[in-house]
């Protein structure tokens, strides 16, 4: 029997192999990521594994896919449910970038700590907002709805196997092999000719809309390795002659304590595609829809920490937006240093970062009673803090990656009201609970604090700040 986490690991590995065949630059990205990780491990030793073992980090991937209808999203949820992956977070990208991005997204991932440790594969999954009149007028919406209704992305056999794997949390060897074969094949780039006129109609609204609704299949848009030094990776990829996007998205590098998520990518490549003209002739063309993203993960921030993060972003936009790149970088670093603590201890003591806490067994006895606050317990050597890695995504960074790989800005009718695609709508669309990432981190922290209370004989769990 093949358990869910083994299915997930095998699916991630096979998807990576397939994507490497289709996009050779991705293989280069994986190779350079591995080299950087090995160099960081040699230079920093055990400290390099503070946010995950080197085995986990090197094998870690997140994918990105796009679908067109709530029905397709529900089917995606069934496929990923087979792999022990739950929908976490709601990301509305429609107003987060200058380019037209008519999508809302969630991320399917494992949620239990032991499952994340075994294989933390994630898939950032975007849904086309067909009913948003800012992007699609009545006529185009009708044509798009009809087109999407006429396609089948996920074969019934795959969905039947997925439901069985989710219900039983495992599959027999032969069924697991068939499931993996079908699941990987769904996300291969189709050789079916693309209707050029229809694709171009949607591309005038948004390149993302065309990628989702302009073809009769779906595909993996990018597959992202994790790297321990994204700045060094950026330098090495550029030195190999691979064109990278202009920036690293997310907070600047912080030597004491990187937080949240930093991402960059090589630019979308022109890939050959068969194109069908209105007269039926099939010619050779190309499309730029897939790119190679890489990420560096830091410490998860609490709700208070994220509020602080959002304020810093607003200050950066206000004070640095129109400066030359070098000055902007200096201003950005200064603002981050001013407004967010630079060490793990300060993030923990101020309740800005998520950590698990553990009683120090060999602390010298001094006759005193342990205090009740985390800051005092840390300062007194009663407990140690282990950072919780950020497992999720940032809407602004995701939109920045999308935007940096688009050929034009598309169109958006700002005179119209955007359709409602809120948390409740997304949960209905996916037909299962969409989990709150903050609640997941808070639960993990709370379990550790309860353990501290037991170990130190406290009447109640310590306050996390």
UniProtKB/TrEMBL annotation:
Keywords: Dioxygenase, Iron, Oxidoreductase. Its cofactor is Fe(2+). The lineage of its organism: Bacteria, Bacillati, Actinomycetota, Actinomycetes, Kitasatosporales. It comes from the Bacteria. This is 2-oxoadipate dioxygenase/decarboxylase. Its EC number is 1.13.11.93. It comes from Streptomyces kanamyceticus. The keyword Cell membrane does not apply. Belongs to the 2-oxoadipate dioxygenase/decarboxylase family. InterPro entries: HGLS, YdcJ_bac-like. GO terms for molecular function: dioxygenase activity.
